Amino acid sequence: MTADCPRSPRYPSPTPPATDDQVSAYRRALGIPEIVDLHTHFMPYRVLRKVWDYFDTASDRLGFPWPIHYRTAEEDRVARLRAMDVGRWTALVYPHKADMAEWLTDWALEFAARHPDCVPGGTFYPEPDADTQVERALGRGARIFKAHLQVGSYDPRDPRLDPVWGRLAEARTPVVCHCGHGPETGEATGVGPITEVLRRHPDLVLVVAHLGMPDYTAFLDLAERHPSLMFDTTMVFTDFTERIAPFPPRERARLAELGERIVLGTDFPNIPYSYAHQLSALHRLDLGEDWLRGVLYENGTRLLDQAEAAALRPTPVPSRAGSTGGAGSTGDAGDTGGTDGAGTTGGTGRTGSNGGTEMSGTRTDGRGGGR
Q1: CA 207 to CA 38: how far, in whole Å?
Q2: pTM score, two decimals?
């Protein structure tokens, strides 16, 4: 993918793509070098199979079918994204019970090492060592996390997660959080619980998945009180979602006002329509080409670059004062993500400034393997 892509005279005005084969031309017409999608899923096959089983039985629980559009082999799905010029994408994983988060994170980081255009990511669950797991993942180069309150059936206010939210806020690492009620209400979904988390951690870069579907207005209100809150577009505005959770037309102006805080998300491959349809649904909002360029490329790029810059920022070491003033020196992340540099007086070392690790012989940094 080229680093710069001026508008081509062959495409004087973007035409919304009707098929996936037209997505690349649409990208070129908008004059962006690539598409950045922060809500795509790649998972271990046995986990993905259970996710697909869930959607295969959607009619029984939800009252409408949910056919998976991209039920293909993993490498075919990767190739499909690349063919559409999706230059940066994610392998969002999420646990539904304890003792899953760490190995899912390991899998996601190893997957990103094999696919340099995948943003290294991780997940977490309210368990005693959740903060340690997240710290280790950050040390190994994780630059995005996924929290799924509905599937995980946990409360984001769980005390075991407080240090996790705090550390991710400090690291400026985005958390794509499914905290809305759609498609099913969870034990702690909705705007209330996550609002309390943001009150405690106002710098947390929380990306509300699906624009908070179906409680769009409540989450848009929340964004006005929390400047670090962002949204992804996953499934919103599509024909499928407009039938079950339509976006209020009166709120369209707020999408324009919050344009710099909206990033592209699609839920690929677990969607019941084509990737092109999500882009066409955004296009028909008629919010302008600048808005589309921001959502499809600029905002996501800025978010990931911000996380990488925070990871590369040196950790200040307090001056030593007497026998108890020492703090751990800065350590480098080891090949397995461990941190060195514990201070001689008991201070804790932080992850090295490179923010990466060696996995499967491939260097991984915050831009997904040194891309």
Answers
A1: 9
A2: 0.83
Residue 5 binned pLDDT confidence (cut-offs 50, 70, 90): low
- Alpha carbon of 255 to those of 39, 200, 235, 241, 309: distances in Å? 19, 26, 15, 17, 27
Amino acid identity of 125? Y
Tell me the pLDDT tens digit for each residue of 121-158. 999 999 999 999 999 999 999 999 999 999 999 999 99
Distance from C-alpha of 361 to C-alpha of 344, rounded to nearest angstrom: 33
How far is CA 246 from its chain centroid? Answer: 23
Distance CA 126, CA 101 (A): 9
Please give the DSSP secondary-structure letter assigned to residue 208. Answer: E
What burial class does residue 42 get, using C-beta atoms within 10 Å of its C-beta: 0-12 exposed, 13-18 middle, 19+ buried? buried
Question: For 293-348, what is each residue's pLDDT tens digit?
Answer: 999 999 999 999 999 999 988 755 444 333 333 333 333 333 333 333 333 333 33
With contact defined as beta carbons under 8 Å apart, do 24 and 85 qualify? yes
C-alpha to C-alpha distance for 294 and 141, rounded to whole angstroms: 25
Burial code of 3-18, b = ≥16 C-beta within 10 A, e = fewer?
eebeeeeeeeebebbe
Instruction: Residue 105: name the closest of 80, 74, 133 by CA.
Output: 133
Token pair, residue 76, equals 């075919």
Residue 143 in tokens: 């630059």
Contact (CB, 8 A) for 110 and 56: no
CA angle 194, 135, 369 (to 5 degrees): 105
Q: Cα–Cα distance between 193 and 213 in angstroms, integer?
A: 15
- 59: amino acid identity, one letter: S
176 bridge partner residues: 146, 207
Centre a 10 Å sphere on the Cβ of residue 200 and count the other Cβ atoms it contains.
12
Q: Is 317 exposed, middle or buried (0-12, 13-18, 19+ CB in 10 A)?
A: middle
| Total length of the chain | 371
Contact yes or no for 188/148 (Cβ under 8 A): no
Cα 293 from chain centroid (whole Å): 18
Q: Nearest CA to 34 among 77, 88, 100?
A: 88
**Local structure of residue 202 (DSSP, 8 states):** T
